[in-house]
Automatic annotation (TrEMBL):
Matches recorded under SUPFAM superfamilies: C-terminal domain of transcriptional repressors, Iron-dependent repressor protein, dimerization domain, Winged helix' DNA-binding domain
UniProt entry keywords in alphabetical sequence: Iron
A family per Pfam: Fe_dep_repr_C
GO terms of molecular function: DNA-binding transcription factor activity; protein dimerization activity; transition metal ion binding
Ferrous iron transporter FeoA-like domain boundaries: 176-247, 260-334
Protein name: Metal-dependent transcriptional regulator
Keyword rRNA-binding found: no
Lineage top rank: taxon: Bacteria
Region (Disordered): 152-176
Organism: Aeoliella straminimaris
Amino acid sequence: MNHALPVVASLIAMAVVFWPRYGLWARWQLAQELARRIRREDALKHLIKSEANGRVATLNSLAGALQISAANAASLLEELEERELVTFEDGRPLLRPAGRAMALHVVRAHRLWESYLAEQTGVPELEWHPRAEEREHLLTPEEADALAARLGHPTRDPHGDVIPPPHGDLEGDPGQSLNTAAPQTPVLITHIEDEPDTVYRQLVALGLRPGMRAFVIEKTPSRVRFWVDGNEQILAPILAQNVFVRPLPEFRTEDLVEEEFLSGLKPQARTRVIGLSPACRGQERRRLLDLGFVPGTVVEVEMISPAGDPTAYRVRGTIVALRREQANLIRVSSKEASDR
C-alpha cells in the first residue's frame, strides 16, 4: 500500500497541473492569451489616439507607449497585420475597420469606467486611470452600453475627454496646451492628461481639474505662472503641456481675480453660496450639496483651526468642517462676503 502512495501523489500532481480548463497549465495558457490580447488592444489604442490627435504613430512611439523594445513593437505590428487589424502605408501603421472598432471600444470602456469610479465610488482620483486600464480589457460592448446607461450616457470622462459613441469617431484631446495660451486671456481647463503617471500625480496634487477657470500671468522658459479658481499656481512647462484649455471670451481677467471662494474668507465673514465649481463632481459634489452648500445658502466662517486647516463653517444652523481644497470648490458672492 505504501508503494502506491507515490504513484497516487504523482497522479494528483499531474491532475492539478494538466486538468483541462481548471489545471495550472490551462490557467497559465489563459493568462498568457489574455496578456497577448491586452498588448494588441493597447497597441490599437495607441494608434487610434495618435490619429485622433493628428500625430503619426511610429514604431518608436508604439514602443514608448507600451514600454517595450522596438523589436517587440515590430513583432506586435506584424501580428496586428496578420490578424487584419492594421495595414501599412509608406511604412506607417494604419487601422483597418476591425482594428478601429476594437480600439474605439477599448477607449470607450476606459473612459466610461473612469466616469463610474469618479461619480459613483469613493476611489481616490489617482486610482481612476490605473483601474480603468485593467477594466477596459474586460468589459464587453454590451456591458459598456449598460454602464453608459447607468451613468446617464455621459459625454465626457472626469479628465475632460470625450466618451465616443459605440460606432463613431474618436475626437482628439480638447483644447490647446496651457503652454500655448496667450497671457492675460481667460481660459477654461478642458482636459488633464493622465499619462505619464508621474506628471499626472503632480497636477492632481495641485488640485487642477477640468471645469476650472484660469489665465496665464507670465510665461518664461522655466515656468508658467497662472491664476486658477482663486489661486496663483506655477508649473514647469513640461507639466503645463499636459493641461489643456480653451478661451473664455465672455470673461475678463478681472472677473476671475474678483471671484470669491469659501476658502478665501476670514473668520466671522458671512457670505452666500453661488454654486459649486464644475471641477467638483461625484461623491464630493453630492456630499457638499447634502451638507447644504446649495445656491443661495448663507454661510458664516465660524472658526479656523490653529493649523489653518480645516475651517469650521455655520451652514443652516449646523457646524461643518471643510478642508481648504473642499472649500475652494464653493463659489460665493463677493458682495455678500462684505456684508454683515
